Fold this protein.
Amino acid sequence: MNVDDQLTPALTLRGVSKRYGPVVACDAVDLAVRPGEIHGLLGENGAGKSTLMKILLGLVHRDTGTILRGTEPIEIDSPQVAADLGLGMVHQHFSLIEPLTVWENVILGDTGRVDRAAACAQVEQVAQRYGLPIDPLARVDRLSAGERQRVELIKCLRRDPSVLILDEPTSVLTQAESAELFTVLRRVVQAENRAVILISHKLAEIMAATDRVTVLRRGAVAFHGTTADTTAQELARQMVGRDVSLRAEGAALGLLPVEPQSPAGAPPSTDPAGAAPAADPTTPAALRLRGVTLRVGGLPVLDDLHLDVAPGEIVGLYGVEGNGQATLGELLSGLLVPDEGAVEVGGRPVELTRPGTLHEAGLGIVPEDRHHSGVVLDMSVAENLVMKSLAGVCTRGVLSRRRMHRIARRQMAEFNIVAPSPDTPLRSLSGGNQQRVVLARELSAGPKALVAAQPTHGLDVGAIEDMYVRLRQAAAEGVAVLLISTELEEVMALADRIAVISSGRIVGVLPTAEATAERLGMLVGGVAH
Amino acid sequence: MSAADNIATILSSGARLTVPLAFAACGEYVAQRAGTLNISVEAMMLGAAFGSIAVASATGSATIGLAAGALVGVAVAFVHGNLSHRVQINTFVVGLVLNALVLGLTSYLITVSTFTGHQVWQVSVPVLRDIPIVGPMLFVQRWPVYLLLAVIPLTWWLVQRSRWGLELRAVGENPQAADVSGIHVNRRRRQALLWCGLLAGLGGAYLAVGEVGSFNQNMTAGRGYLVIAAVIFGAWRLGRTLVGCVVFGLADAMRLALPALGVTMNSQLLIAAPYLLALLAMLVFATAHREPRALAQPFQRGTT
Amino acid sequence: MAAATTVAAPPTGPSGPDATGRRLLRRLNPGVGGWQVAAATAATVAVALALSALLISVTGGSPTASAKAMYQGSMASPAAWTTSLLYVAPLLLVAVGACVSARSGFFNIGQEGQVLIGALFGAWAGLRLALPGPLLVVSVLAAAAVGAGAWAGLSALMYRFRGVNVVVSTMLMTFLAQQLVSFAVNTPWLLQESRLGRGTLSPQSNPLPEGARISSLGEYPNLQINGGLVLAIVVAVVFSLALARTRWGFRLTMTGLSPAAARHAGVRVGALGGMALAISGGLAGLAGALLLASPVGTNRLQPGMSLNIGWDGLLVALVARNNPLLAIPVAVLFGVLRAGGSFLAATGVPPFLVDVVKALLVLAFVAPPVVIGMLRKRRRAGEPATTTPATDPAVSKQDAMEGSLA
């Protein structure tokens, strides 16, 4: 037992396990969170963090193990019970209901009579106590990302939780907003003796903001200790289960320095060995965005966006989530048409109102949310591989299953797609293999340019490495690669140039060699509201 | 008869024809705000109309019949709610099947049984009923009409002011977010359907034991769909929905009254008018985000 | 996880027709696992039949006598089969159309109205065009299909340009169609019957001329196979093949499963969905033409002549799980129930019983796969988490624009 004895933990988990069929999501997890501390919960995607939190929140029921609040064992049957027990959660993606007002959202999940005046007063009071200014009468769909997070925090804090759980809270925040958030959390912990669990896959964040840290690996606790006594390198090793030496891995784990005082041992940010060949500035752009503007309800989501990507070059488009990247990804998938501006592929403007033209022009895309537009889960692997180039498997409109299978087998072998057969429904493949299907389809079409939007979201380290290798290889073969990412480390590790997007505009482009975390951070935050 | 008398007649008959629609529309409005595009409102009304007459005939009391009709509506809602918000069968499929089932069942049962007619009593307010034109419309009606006048503000209060209504709206707009806030999404949707069943039941029962005093085969004849049209016409606001009901009721009254007045007018157009108006309303207002965002989307925890 | 992988096709020749059929089924019902669903369906069907029997006995009838009467009216003799099959043809046509629209994700529930519109256009062609025999039949069918197809296409246009929900608009248009037909047969200069001598005019059209009617094939004693049935079966087979084996079918299926992925892959989602709706309406219109021109009715356009074939055809497609080939036996079952129902009156049981049986049977067939699929999903729920879509203001705009862009 790692639990220190001098202090009764606010929340204790003993031997909590949860399995889904043959998959063990949580394997005898022990966790003790003390009042007055920020406890980091670190792990790769799929390590069991979110299952564990769903158990604490009453969304999932554990198979075995005990949960203690203080010294008393508790059963968490529903989110309602969790809230009553003093467990509050701030979700990664907001759990706010947009057409409702701030105060209505805040009291959602309470019981008893609705008292608008009291609710508003309480919102204002909590807002004031923690320095989270907000108008209780505002409709949530009119608020910015930072303001929405404040509403989430207020919603949570007003219930006076003894344990506050934050799931990847900084993914939508600028560095300045993140810093503000951690200040609030410090106040919550020190002044009010609450416990905070901070779930993150970002090492730097865990190192900077937490008191103690627990690392999960494949559902089990791999490490537990005081943050000050460990190093980022050590945590990374515990997270992956072996030494982390590869640059790509380092980037995948967030080992590059984000803060100037960040841990020793991290690879330097400008490592020429790992960089892709620099592009010749005289070659014409394979992908060019010219003044792309797209408005929603009169407000520009993409605002006069200009960007060039030369053949053989990787350009990283870096920014905080929610600054137009998703919209740009949809636009380059052919799902949205810009109000103004043009997209050029291989020097020619593409007619965007007709579907499929981007693909015909030679633009491949690995979309951000592959389940939305990248793949059809209920179709087979083979069908997913050929869906964008049906001409190759059809004779006068009639499908040839034989040709489809031949193409599928070849691509499955080439891209290491692990599936029982080409006829396996895509749904039953792992996330990494699904992503390989997308990449195989897009690269097999011989694109001039490839857009990879958050290509490593939700993948484990092995699959991330694989993705990086493929992207570098594509660039080496002369493909122009546009990497849209919210991960600073990923962009720094892969890109030749970095363009920073904020509020739908490119606010700066600089060669990776000249980019530092601070410069990028200032660019990201400078223009944001 | 004077012109004023004619207008009074049409208004009063329009009011009578509006009542069943308005009852059911209050229910359908709640169901749709919670995210169920409830087609089985037709089954609820038809089943209730039959049930009310059957029970009124058995007990001799039209009022007990009316209550029984409401219960039949609730029973249909219970089946619908469990099939589409527990077992997760597509809500349109459930609605279509329930409509077919209730139509078949009531048609069958009315053929094999005979019922005596019953009607709920009429309230006629002295003096006030003599106000020209609007007097008969407002002050000579059967008592459930005055119940309706209580149901409307109650429904508004429930949806807009009560905690239940807040949760209901949350469930209709964003079930995932409502779920993590600790709201039982499918339970709220089932409850909204039950409220819809209760009111659609009252509306259907009013058709039988209120206006006519008997039941005939396929008595509702598509009034349930009219109710859906009214909610759409009303752009998911209670007030506008009720305006839609009044317009539809008046159109129906005019259709019935005009031939007697010697006015030739296209009755098909009047019958079709409500549906046409609902379609036009959708065409005009479609792009504004008025409908509940999760309307007709099933919710199951664990699916994004 | 285990459930999904065990369903995977065996390694032997995966491209045979059987494999295609299995694939199709699996795709339509992710999580259908053979015998469990079959056993559950057998049980629910038994319950449905038991409930029907209970209803008969409670109301003083005899379930066995009713069953016997239904059998006699629908299957006992060639003449009975003739009646059943006359219903099968329009039911099947409506069902195939419903399969196509449901597979495309543009769910059409307005077949009842489309059947009427088809009959309206068919009647107009049959009564107004002076063409020689076979050409007249063809033009009746063509006018019905095109007219009803265009009618259903209106819903597609309303969706494309104004984002009007297809289910709602097709439903509302059903009632417009009913009044349109009523208007046509009540208006002398349109299709109301012509005055012969005295007497009041009925709201109906003149009977279709002999040359515009669909004749039966072959000369079998008592058993007549109407041309409409052949047409319906050919349509079912053609659409089954088109859905499973052609690029069009691939795109249609993809659109139904994921409109965003389909558009991304170059499919004009709105156009394809509109086409599916038009086809669905067109086939319902053909069914209307059969009701008008085959010996199932009076060969006149009448307001109530759709006989709920549109609603029933939709139910056939639901039971057949949107598979046009499976729709053939299901349509036969529904046709048999209809024909048998008219014989029920002889036993003192109202023919409406058939509607009850039908609705219960639909539930009995539809519920088990959903329930079993849901139980399985629940068992697997929350497996290695999938990524949640990011919150971005454009997402809602994209939803609204989906139709208008394609």
Notes: Chain C is about 70% helix and 0% strand. The two ends of chain C are 36 Å apart (CA to CA). Strands of chain C lie at 216-217, 225-226. The longest strand of chain C covers residues 216-217.
